[in-house]
Amino acid sequence: MTQNRTEQNRTEQNRTEQNRTEIILNVWKSSPNKWLFLCRAFAKIFRRYSLTKPLSIFWMKSYDNYIDKFLRKNFGQIITTDYSKLPTENGAKIVWSIWLQGEENAPELVQKCFESQRIMAKNIGFEHIALSLETLANYLEIPQYILEKYQAGKIIHAHFSDYIRDKLMYEHGGIWLDATCFAYKDLDPAIVTDFDFWNAKNIKISGIISGIHGDILSYYQTNIIAARKGSHLYLAMCQMFEKYFAKENYVSIVYFYMFYFYRLLTTENLEFVKGYHKIPDNNIETSSWKTASSSQFQEILARDTCIYKLTHKQNITPYDEFGNLTFYGELLAGKGLLEQV
User: For 1-284, which CATH class?
Assistant: First the structure.
């Protein structure tokens, strides 16, 4: 079983690598403005090699301004729509997650995370549902053109998952946790009744990505969200995705385009402005484990963070240079696993 899982994961990684160059070339060809790519490329270069900070800021400002302009031009009607009279109801008592290839084929890290999520869900009186591509149809009706573009590689896994979580939040409500989210403390079940939408907020972002997308990633994260059934915000997010891919192949604007659209909604639509400001800062340490040692384990876990966003994409070892468990290793070893109540 383990060997089969490893082979399937390796096959999936190879497929991703083979498609990456083709996707980049297709995105470049389909881009409405090559200036965007130049802004992004130069910003990354200046940040990565610690070159002139003012130039890096200039390129990033140009980059952000172009993305916002593109989204307003193409989705302005969605941004300004008054959704306030549409009905909502308490979200489903479900903690949703997904591993498209099926949980039985997931890496050990993901299975550990699912275990922690199940315990947390049970503690707060929720059900835990780990979806796969095969089981999606039991809960959602995905437009055929989106499925076809996903299967053809024109919608990547990450963006397809973005749409799935948004559609789940709109049609069912509940809590969404990414497959690599490790639950250390119980979330408050009221987040699916008291908020039209809720998400981790003002997260501490570190590393190279903090200089490129730090502001937008701190403002909004898709890996820890919740909503009422019929959430107006997630209706708008779904409408944006469906309209974009009804005529486009690939994401030609920016990988984090849904984050930028969320920011426009919550800064330019009065209902969503109020909704965003209602959400208190929470789970701000969700990424702090990346630079933490084992000696900091209890200190970090004592902070006001319930969910830790891990990763299976980076080569992060559970041991430090002296052979001691890191914070990451402690979590994998089950030291941070919730107790059932």
Answer: alpha beta
